[in-house]
Write a structure and sequence with these properties.
By secondary structure, the chain is α/β, with parallel strands linked by helices. The protein has a single domain, classed as Rossmann fold. Strands 6-7-8-3-9-10 form a six-stranded mixed beta sheet, sandwiched between helices. Helix 6 links the parallel strand 7 and strand 8. The longest helix is centred in the C-terminal third of the chain and has 16 residues. The protein is globular. This is ABC transporter ATP-binding protein. Keywords: ATP-binding, Nucleotide-binding, Translocase, Transport.
Length: 253
């Protein structure tokens, strides 16, 4: 079981603070939604917590090991990271792109062991990509390509999933499909930290919400305790009706 812990984590770009004194932990059995407006520092927080972006203060660890000191292969076996920007160097087939999720285990497209091949097939099936497996990625829609990248992360069989807006390019049906897959992954013993902009979707699935505003984590707790009309007004500047996990945005505050 994998646990990611950040303590007093801070990130700067020159003299500009991107993340300030962030504390959080995410472990097995948790589906944590990271919530906040554009520019709040969510992406920098994810990257710094995984050791992918230099922290200017504090530290982050995976199972007690300093993330900044982990070799890429070590990190990839513990955490599947799905970034916001997902460029592909060349238009490979869907199956081969998903197979890149097994790279940390020494596998590569075209030379998969039985365990690697099984992981790729499971990821293709879960993401509804079996019929597209032989297609080249430059022939796919944006939504289809988003599912390919998610399947690549899923194929790693890592103990923790960290995803930055994984449903941003998807239609409602496939948004629910991906969220259901994350929920199943967590129910099976994984942990997930996911940036989401759809508050209703986050409230429906998350077990916890971490709220960011102006580079800082301002709240961290169960959905029912942290999702309030007052917090929606404070963080997003909108008027909202909140009833438990149901939220209806009415307009600008």
């Amino acid at each position: 079981m994998t646990e990611l812990v950040a303590e007093k984590l801070s990130v700067h770009a020159g003299k500009t603070a991107l993340v300030a004194q962030a504390d959080f932990r995410v472990g097995a059995g948790e589906f944590v939604a990271l919530i906040g407006p554009n520019g709040a520092g969510k992406t920098s927080l994810l990257r710094a917590s995984l050791g992918l972006e230099k922290a200017n203060g504090g530290c982050a660890s995976i199972d007690g090991d300093n993330c900044a000191e982990l070799a890429p292969m070590q990190r990839a076996r513990r955490v599947a990271y799905l970034p916001q920007q997902r460029p592909l160097a060349w238009p490979n087939t869907v199956r081969d792109v998903v197979a890149l999720g097994r790279y940390a285990y020494g596998a590569a497209p075209g030379r998969l062991g039985n365990q690697d091949a099984d992981a790729v097939e499971r990821a293709l099936m879960k993401c509804g990509l079996k019929e597209l497996a032989s297609r080249h990625t430059d022939t796919l829609s944006g939504g289809e390509l988003a599912r390919v990248h998610f399947a690549r992360a899923l194929a790693s069989d890592a103990g923790l999933l960290v995803a930055d807006e994984p449903v941003a390019a998807l239609d409602p049906r496939h948004q629910f499909r991906i969220m259901d897959i994350i929920h199943q992954y967590v129910a099976a013993g994984g942990g997930a930290l996911v940036v989401l902009h759809d508050i209703s979707l986050a409230a429906r699935y998350a077990s916890r919400m971490i709220w960011m505003k102006d580079t800082r984590i301002i709240c961290d707790g169960p959905v029912e305790d942290t999702l309030t009309a007052e917090r929606m007004a404070d963080v997003f500047g909108v008027r909202a009706k909140v009833n438990g996990r149901a939220v209806e945005i009415e307009g600008a505050a």
